[in-house]
Structures are given as structure tokens and as C-alpha cells.
């Protein structure tokens, strides 16, 4: 048995004049909040590459999109949140999607099986993506950039204040996320104000120092100005007002045109090195001073964080079908393993005396819709982490149910003891 509390507001809806601004905490509500169903997904570009194909469409929003999307979900073990005798650890999920897509409402992120199997509280939040989450003029208070990351941080603050009421232990919070979600967690590790909000971190197929993860302040400004031009907003003092007057669709539709030579791993609106959320580039911060002076040694002594990180066997194949000529969903192309692996590297931060665990996930699900040549593609360990094979309707094998229970136990043990 699991109690699910869905669609809890953690921020004021970022509408109208609040578009592009850092999130504000949600006002208190009167009476009883209906938390029985998911709320909106955040506004985003939808994948139309393979219409009607479940392998790609499973990642598209399954709820109506809206800018009013800053909600979180809580799953608690047991039928009701009668506070257990001892608070239990909390797992907080941050979804991926290249910082331009993703939603906590997706079926594959349903926290019920993980909460039940491991006796943990599971939380997931929506955060703003694309231009609405990452367009910024660093230094400008009304549109500083990185507001999608600030959404995540505000949700983590909400967990600190409120998760005790659900039987969760605010002192035992583990973040877990995949792809851009894992990169986000890496950026929180490098941003001192986020550090008090979690003890442990699981980075699945992503790291903060990937070349696609951040841009410099000047490039961030250039991209913001380019989008403004594309939607017909004049440069100058009226620019933000003009951008705020556009419909979300008008902005989202032009995102792809900001970087015309898209290629793979080129996302227009991503976290920006703003001197605020990120004091320096992730490389410099990870190098502990490799960025001209102030580095790791200047960070406040935040609680040490245990890390679990890893990858799936065939990280790159998912991207090949989207951006590399000669590759399609139904045909592979000849490319040597060396050429291919040259482009796929996950950076491991210099872990000083922390517990750092690594995994490689190499099981290809029996019901996977993508073609066999793609192996175990990016994103296809997630269903095992969330216990989807325990759902009898989904036609996994008995072996896969066992594998999923084992993976959940690894993640659960990590959340409990590091």
C-alpha cells in the first residue's frame, strides 16, 4: 500500500509578470487541497520525430501543458501518512529532457512501486524548461537565467520544511535524476545554497561538466536576444515586456531556431554560468580552483555528499537516430566503436574521500520498442529504478521483476546508508 499526494503547489504560478523570474514560494491554501491527480506539465517542445511510436512518445507530456506547472508529488509507504515511528529517508527525483522537456507526471516516473518496495518517501517536482526555464540576461533581476534550477531548489526547500509531516526525514534526503536531471544535481552540488537540502546524490547518465550542460553569460545573453528577435521583440528596455506578452507556444516554437545548426547535444536554453547560482564553470568548480583562483577551497563546508553514478550500456544510440545523418530508427550505420566512444564520456568529479559508487546498466528490456541495434539506450534504466516491471499490465518477465527489485534495493540502501 502507498499513499500518493499529487500536484502539491510549491511555488506561486510563474505567470504574466512572473515569467522568467525566480520562483516565489506558494501562498498557503485554505481548507483541504485536492491532491488526488497530477497537475499540468510545464510548457515545452514536444517530440514529433516518430509520430505514434511509443518509444519516443513515452517521454512527451501526458498532461495538458501550462506555465502554471510548479507542483510536486509525494508517495509515502503505507496506506496513509500516519507518521512512522521513525522518519524514513527521502528520495527526490529530478527528471531529464535536455533542459527543454520533461515532466514529473510521466508514467515511468510513478513513485508508488519504489516507495512501497523500499519503505521510503519518494518526491518528484516539475521545473520550468526551455526558454521559460533558462532564458536569461545574467545580472538582470527580472530574468536572471537558471530559474528552472531555482524551481528545483525551491522544491528542495519545501521538502526540508514539510516532508516530516509525511513521515520523511529531512536530514536524509537523496537526490536522484537522469540525464539533464543528473546534470542538475551536479550543479546543485556545485552551488553552495543548494547543499544543505540533501545528503546524497545519484547521477544517472549525466554530469554537470558535460559540454552541453552550461553556457557562459555572454552566450546566454546572445541566445536570449536571438529568441527575442525571432519572435519580433525589439531590443531595448521593452524587450522583456514584449517577451512576456508572447504566448508560451510562440516562444517554444522558436526555440529550435535559436541554434540553427542543432546537431546532437545542442540545446538552446540551458543553465548559464551567471556568477550567482554558478560562481564559475563546472570544470573550474570541480577542479577546486582550476578556474583562476577561487575554487573548491572557498566553498563553505557543506555537508559531505555520497555519490552513486553510472551509465547505461549504449548511451549514445538514442541521440544518433535524432541527429546523425545515416542513422534512422530502422537502420544502423557503420561507425567504429572508437569513433563512437570518443564522443561519449562521463566526467567523474574528483571525489575526495567520499563514498563514490558506480554502476553500468546493461539489461535491454524484453518489451523495449526501440530496435535491437540500439542496445540499452539512454533513459532505459529508469523504468527499473522506479519498479515498472512490478506492474503486471506492462508485460515484463519474471526475471525483470527480480532485476528491478534488486536495483530498487541498491538505490534504497544507498539512500539509507550511503
TrEMBL record:
InterPro entries: AB_hydrolase_fold (IPR029058), AChE-related_enzymes (IPR050654), CarbesteraseB (IPR002018), Carboxylesterase_B_AS (IPR019826), Carboxylesterase_B_CS (IPR019819), Cholinesterase (IPR000997)
UniProt key word Nuclease: no
GO molecular function, one term: acetylcholinesterase activity
GO cellular component entries: extracellular space; plasma membrane; synapse
Bilayer topology: Peripheral membrane protein
Keyword Lyase: no
Signal peptide coordinates: none
Catalytic site: 179 (acyl-ester intermediate), 315 (charge relay system), 378 (charge relay system)
Residues covered by the Carboxylesterase type B domain: 2-332, 352-418
GO BP term (any one): acetylcholine catabolic process
EC number: 3.1.1.-
Chief site of localization: membrane
Compartment annotation: Cell membrane; Synapse
Keywords: Cell membrane, Disulfide bond, Hydrolase, Membrane, Neurotransmitter degradation, Serine esterase, Signal, Synapse
Family: Belongs to the type-B carboxylesterase/lipase family.
Descriptive protein name: Carboxylic ester hydrolase
Organism: Calidris pygmaea (Spoon-billed sandpiper)
Amino acid at each position: 500500500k502507498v499513499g500518493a499526494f499529487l500536484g502539491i503547489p510549491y511555488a506561486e504560478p510563474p505567470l504574466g509578470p512572473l515569467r522568467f523570474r525566480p520562483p516565489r514560494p506558494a501562498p498557503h491554501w485554505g481548507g483541504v487541497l485536492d491532491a488526488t491527480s497530477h497537475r499540468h506539465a510545464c510548457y515545452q517542445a514536444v517530440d514529433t520525430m516518430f509520430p505514434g511510436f511509443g518509444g519516443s512518445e513515452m517521454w512527451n507530456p501526458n498532461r495538458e501543458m501550462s506555465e502554471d506547472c510548479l507542483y510536486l508529488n509525494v508517495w509515502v509507504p503505507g496506506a496513509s501518512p500516519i507518521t512512522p515511528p521513525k522518519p524514513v529517508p527521502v528520495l527526490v527525483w529530478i527528471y531529464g529532457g535536455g533542459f527543454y522537456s520533461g515532466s514529473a507526471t510521466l508514467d515511468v516516473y510513478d513513485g508508488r512501486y519504489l516507495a512501497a518496495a523500499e519503505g521510503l518517501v519518494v518526491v518528484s517536482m516539475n521545473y520550468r524548461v526551455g526558454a521559460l526555464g533558462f532564458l536569461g540576461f545574467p545580472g538582470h533581476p527580472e530574468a536572471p537565467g537558471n530559474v528552472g534550477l531555482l524551481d528545483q531548489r525551491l522544491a528542495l526547500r519545501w521538502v526540508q520544511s514539510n516532508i516530516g509531516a509525511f513521515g520523511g526525514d529531512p536530514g536524509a534526503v537523496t537526490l536522484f535524476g537522469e540525464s539533464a536531471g543528473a546534470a542538475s544535481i551536479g550543479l546543485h552540488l556545485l552551488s553552495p545554497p543548494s547543499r544543505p537540502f540533501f545528503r546524497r546524490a545519484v547521477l544517472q547518465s549525466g554530469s554537470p561538466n558535460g559540454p552541453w550542460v552550461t553556457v557562459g553569460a555572454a552566450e546566454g545573453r546572445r541566445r536570449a536576444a536571438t529568441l527575442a528577435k525571432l519572435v519580433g521583440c525589439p531590443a531595448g528596455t521593452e524587450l522583456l515586456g514584449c517577451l512576456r506578452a508572447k504566448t508560451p507556444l510562440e516562444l517554444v516554437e522558436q526555440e529550435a531556431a535559436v541554434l540553427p545548426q542543432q546537431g546532437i547535444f545542442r540545446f538552446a536554453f540551458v543553465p548559464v554560468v551567471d556568477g550567482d547560482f554558478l560562481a564559475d564553470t563546472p570544470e573550474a568548480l570541480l577542479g577546486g580552483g582550476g578556474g583562476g583562483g577561487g575554487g573548491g577551497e572557498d566553498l563553505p563546508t557543506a555537508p559531505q555528499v555520497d555519490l552513486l553514478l553510472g551509465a547505461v550500456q549504449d548511451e549514445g544510440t538514442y541521440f544518433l537516430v535524432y541527429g546523425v545523418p545515416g542513422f534512422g530508427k530502422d537502420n544502423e550505420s557503420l561507425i567504429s566503436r572508437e569513433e563512437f566512444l570518443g564522443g561519449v564520456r562521463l566526467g567523474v568529479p574528483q571525489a575526495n574521500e567520499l563514498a563514490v559508487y558506480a554502476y553500468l546498466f546493461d539489461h535491454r528490456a524484453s518489451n523495449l520498442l526501440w530496435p535491437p541495434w540500439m542496445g540499452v539506450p539512454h533513459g532505459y534504466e529508469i523504468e527499473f529504478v522506479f519498479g515498472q516491471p512490478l506492474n503486471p499490465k506492462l508485460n515484463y518477465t519474471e526475471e525483470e521483476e527480480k532485476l528491478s527489485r534488486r536495483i530498487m534495493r541498491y538505490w534504497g540502501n544507498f539512500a539509507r546508508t550511503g
